[in-house]
Please model this.
Amino acid sequence: MSEIVVITGLPRSGTSLMMQIIDKTQIPVLSDGKRESDISNPEGYYELEAVKGIVKDTSFLNEAKGKAVKIVAPLPIYLDTQHKYKVVFMRRDMDEILRSQEKMLSKDQQSEREKFRTIYEFHLKKTYNFFLLNKIPFLDVNYNQLMQDSENELKKLFIFLGVEQPEEVNSIVKPNLYRNRNEK
Model:
């Protein structure tokens, strides 16, 4: 695989979980382990510090060929379009994202939720438009559906990536870590 697999989505949308899943395939992950696991992400964040500087420096993408790298939205709009990509776009119920973010930051931001919702929805729109404009293939993976029916969601993922499904992958999806859910 010569493409760079980009795992993206809003913060708290399941990007770290997706990196854990990818880590069990034959696709190597590009992360540096500088951000350690914590109570919000007990299995780790799978981040690469260089991604934070993507606006000015995309050179880390040369090292990402044939690998998976986590680039949280809206940062993918700064991808160097000289490379080929496959994007896995994590989606999650917006209210869950906002509550999870508040919990992680230990901050009650309920009074500002609508402002954050507007900002996050703008980031999503901008990121999707970038992928469409640049003809970058992407697959939406819904975190909520992944928690309910991991087998079918993962099947779509592995077909999109063109890799075989590892046997132990279903054990990575841990519904007990799905803590900030909407009860409808």
The chain has one domain: 4-170. The chain has six helices and four strands.
